[in-house]
Amino acid sequence: MTARALSSIGISTRPEELKAVGREIFRLKWEVKRRFGYSLDSVRIPKRYFETPFGSGPLKPERFEQLLRLYRERLAAELNLAL
């Protein structure tokens, strides 16, 4: 879709090229965050977040930690970065 829109203004590119550029930008963004000291280990969620009911009930802190760990692992593998 984006490649078609760009072609309408004379920019010729393929969807695969856009995806590769987007992936590299995303990787660089995380690299910069890491270099400036950001870490997913520092993510803190307010207590009220765990008290707010969702469709399946409130999110338990243990489940959040599990999901954050899974996100970190997948993100690190996908971007080939140590997070």
How would you sum up the global shape?
A: elongated
Please give the largest β-sheet: none
**How much strand?**
under 5%
Structural class designation? mainly alpha
Task: Describe it.
- Helix content is 61%, strand content 0%.
- The chain has 83 residues and is an all-alpha fold.
- The protein has a domain at 39-83.
- The relative contact order is 0.11.
Salient structural properties:
83 residues, mainly alpha
Compact overview of the structure:
This protein is mainly alpha-helical and 83 residues long. It has helices at residues 2-7, 15-35, 47-51, 61-79.
Write the layout of secondary structure elements.
Blueprint: H1 2-7, H2 15-35, H3 47-51, H4 61-79
